[in-house]
Design goal:
The protein is mainly alpha-helical. It has one domain (2-281). The protein is built from 14 helices and three strands. The protein has helices at residues 2-14, 18-21, 23-31, 52-69, 76-90, 124-127, 133-148, 151-158, 180-197, 201-217, 224-237, 244-249, 253-265, 274-281, and strands spanning 101-105, 112-115, 119-123. The chain has a three-stranded mixed β-sheet. Strand 2 (112-115) and strand 3 (119-123) form a beta hairpin. The longest helix has 18 residues, at 52-69.
C-alpha cells in the first residue's frame, strides 16, 4: 500500500482535472460540429511508423470523436480519482513518458476506450461494475496496454487510409497537415474498431495480460480483475443492453478469465483498496 500511496501523492501534486485535460478537444468539437480537428502531422508512407508526435495528434482526432459520442462526466472528484489511478499504473508501463490523459464519460454502456497517444476513457456504466481500486487499476491497465502495444495505430495503418504516395503538401492547412476528410477516415477506422468490430481476440487478451501485470507492478492485487470479469459474466447472462457493445468487441468474460489464470497466479499479494474506492466514489 505504501508504494501506491507514494506514487498517487506524487501525481496528486501535479494532476489536472479531466475537464482541463480534455478542454481543448471539447472546445474544438463544440466549435466544429460534424468536423474532426485539424492539424495532425501524418506519416507519408504506409510502411513508415508513426512518430510519437503523429500518434498523439491522431489520438486527439479519435478522442474528439469519442467525446462527441459520449459526454464527459461532470463529477470532477471522480475524474481526478481516475486520473490519479491511471497515471499510477501508466508510470509502470513501457511508455511512461507519454502525456497520459484519463477521463470518465457518461453512458450506461459498460466499456472503456483507448485512443492512440495516451487518451484513455472509461464509462460510468463500467465504473458502476467496479468494486475496488484494484479493479479500476486493471481496467485502466488494459487500456494503457492498447496504447503501449499500438493496437489502434496498427489498425489505421492496415486500413491504408494514410497510404504511400498521399500528397499532403498541397493541403490548404499547410504542409503535412491532416485535412478534415482524411481525419474523418482515420477516426472512422478507430471508432469502428472501438465501438463495433473490435481489434481482435489476440490483441484483447494481450491487453488483459499486460494490463493486469502493470496493475500488479503498481502494487495492486492482480486477481481483482477476475472479480470484474465475473461481474461482466453476470451482465452477459442477463442479456443486459449495457453489455452488448463490449460483447461485440471483446472475447467472452469466461474466456478472458481462463486466459488470465496463469498470469494472476504468477504474483500474489497486492492491495485491493476497496474502502478507498468507496470513499472516492461515494455520492454526496
Amino acid at each position: 500500500m505504501r508504494v501506491i500511496t507514494i506514487v498517487i501523492l506524487t501525481i496528486l501534486v501535479t494532476a489536472a482535472s479531466a475537464s482541463a485535460q480534455f478542454g481543448d478537444i471539447l472546445d474544438k468539437v463544440n466549435r466544429n460540429k460534424g468536423k474532426i480537428m485539424r492539424g495532425a502531422k501524418v506519416a507519408r508512407e504506409a510502411t513508415k511508423e508513426f512518430t510519437e508526435e503523429e500518434e498523439i495528434a491522431l489520438g486527439r482526432v479519435v478522442g474528439a470523436q469519442i467525446l462527441a459520442t459520449f459526454p464527459l462526466s461532470t463529477n470532477d472528484r471522480l475524474q481526478n480519482y481516475v486520473t490519479l489511478v491511471g497515471n499510477t499504473v501508466a508510470a509502470y508501463s513501457s511508455r511512461s513518458t507519454l502525456p497520459w490523459h484519463f477521463a470518465v464519460v457518461e453512458t450506461t454502456i459498460v466499456n472503456a476506450f483507448s485512443a492512440p497517444g495516451g487518451y484513455v476513457f472509461i464509462t460510468t456504466g463500467a465504473m458502476n461494475q467496479v468494486k475496488s481500486e484494484a479493479e479500476l487499476a486493471a481496467i485502466l491497465g488494459h487500456e494503457i496496454a492498447h496504447t503501449t502495444e499500438r493496437h489502434i495505430l496498427k489498425e489505421i495503418k492496415r486500413a491504408n487510409v494514410i497510404s504511400a504516395g498521399t500528397d499532403l503538401a498541397q493541403s490548404q492547412y499547410g504542409p503535412g497537415r491532416l485535412t478534415d476528410e482524411l481525419a474523418e477516415k482515420v477516426a472512422k477506422v478507430a471508432i469502428d474498431k472501438l465501438f463495433k468490430t473490435g481489434i481482435g481476440r489476440k490483441e484483447e487478451l494481450e491487453a488483459d495480460r499486460v494490463g493486469v501485470t502493470l496493475a500488479g507492478q503498481a502494487g495492486y492485487r492482480k486477481e481483482a480483475f477476475l472479480a470484474f470479469l465475473k461481474s461482466l459474466s453476470a451482465l452477459e447472462k442477463s442479456n443486459s443492453s449495457a453489455f452488448r457493445q463490449l460483447a461485440a468487441t471483446h472475447p467472452r468474460p469466461q474466456d478472458r478469465d481462463q486466459a488470465l489464470r496463469s498470469v494472476v497466479a504468477s504474483q500474489s499479494g497486492g492491495q485491493l483498496l476497496a474502502e478507498r474506492w468507496q470513499t472516492w466514489t461515494a455520492t454526496n
